[in-house]
Amino acid sequence: MKTKIILIDPDHIDEQAIGEAGEIIKRGGLVAFPTETVYGLGGDALNPEASKKIYASKGRPSDNPLIVHIADPDHLFPIAEEVPEKAKLLASKWWPGPLTMIFRKTKLVPYETSGGLDTVAVRFPNHPVALALIRASGGYIAAPSANTSGRPSPTTARHVAEDLDGRIDMILDGGEVRIGLESTIVDFTEEVPVILRPGYINQKMLEEILGEVRMDPGLQSENEHIRPKAPGMRYRHYAPKAELTIVEGKRDDVVRKINELTASAISENKKVGVIATEETASLYPMGDIRNIGSRADDKEIARNLYSVLRDFDEDQADVIFSESFETPRMGQAIMNRLLKAAGHKVITI
Question: I need a surface site. Which of 102, 121, 145, 148 has the fewest CB within 10 A?
Answer without folding.
Answer: 148
